[in-house]
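Propose amino acids for all 232 sites.
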């Protein structure tokens, strides 16, 4: 069973008398323990795909399963609860809370999910992303790459089924990008997680196992990578 499955997915936006099918009868499975990059021109539906697959937005037609749960059939409240336990999200701009330390930023999703923010779980998470010596730092005291690694640790702390990342390296220099991509790679290889990442950057996509190309709300190409050393 895939971590996430979408069938005949349609997401229609209506603006005045214009309609846009941001997702247009799209079928896709994201398998467990894989790292998928989603590419395609601006406006092809990449962000909409992530938002709908993560339960942040709703389809107008078709189905989205996270594990065995079809999320379109859930109430708003049930969908929010499912999202808090089963899905992690990483944004281009990190979206950490500036007034909180790294540890406190990881406590938040656990509190929101009604769980005890166990310190050992949080310090283990920050150590795994290479920030064991920065746990009491605030975002402004960290580099961009370090901030994004805190955001990845935050996305993982609840033990989700899948982590979605929307242009996670879009604001980073090449060293910062590399540190985040190597982390996402290891999250899949070592933790057995599932990662789905939107990117415009072919170098970033080369870290993935699979590259999905969207155009006009559909999948137009789906390449399995035989991964070499990035850059070769
Ligand atoms: P991408 O991430 O590939 O750039 P998006 O998923 O953001 O593409 O957008 C896909 C299409 O849906 C575009 O035509 C965009 O203009 C439209 N769209 C996205 N979000 C909205 C919205 N909230 N309201 C209206 N149209 C939208
Ligand atoms: P669980 O506690 O969910 O059964 P594990 O005991 O295997 O899972 O892992 C401990 C928890 O640490 C994971 O569930 C997850 O919340 C978190 N975690 C796993 N990998 C990472 C990582 N790379 N960075 C931060 N936190 C992680």
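Proposal:
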């Amino acid at each position: 069973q895939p971590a996430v499955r979408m069938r005949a997915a349609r997401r229609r936006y209506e603006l005045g008398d214009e309609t846009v099918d941001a997702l247009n009868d799209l079928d896709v499975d994201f398998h467990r323990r894989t790292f998928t990059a989603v590419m395609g021109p601006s406006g092809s539906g990449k962000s909409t795909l992530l938002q709908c697959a993560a339960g942040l937005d709703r389809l107008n037609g078709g189905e989205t399963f996270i594990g065995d749960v079809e999320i379109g059939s859930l109430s708003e409240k049930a969908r929010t609860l499912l999202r808090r336990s089963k899905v992690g999200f990483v944004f281009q701009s990190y979206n950490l809370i500036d007034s909180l330390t790294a540890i406190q930023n990881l406590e938040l999703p656990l509190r929101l999910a009604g769980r005890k923010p166990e310190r050992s779980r949080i310090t283990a998470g920050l150590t795994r992303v290479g920030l064991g010596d920065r746990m009491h730092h605030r975002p402004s005291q960290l580099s961009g790459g370090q901030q994004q690694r805190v955001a990845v640790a935050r996305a993982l702390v609840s033990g989700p089924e899948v982590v979605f990342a929307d242009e996670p390296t879009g604001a980073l220099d090449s060293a910062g990008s590399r540190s985040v991509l190597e982390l996402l790679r290891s999250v899949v290889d070592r933790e057995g997680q599932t990662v789905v990442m939107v990117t415009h950057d072919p170098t970033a996509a080369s870290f993935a196992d699979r590259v999905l190309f969207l155009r006009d709300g559909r999948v137009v190409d789906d390449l399995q990578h035989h991964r070499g050393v990035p850059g070769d």
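The beta strands are 4-15, 18-30, 35-39, 61-66, 69-70, 87-90, 162-166, 195-198, 210-215, 218-224. The two ends are 33 Å apart (CA to CA).
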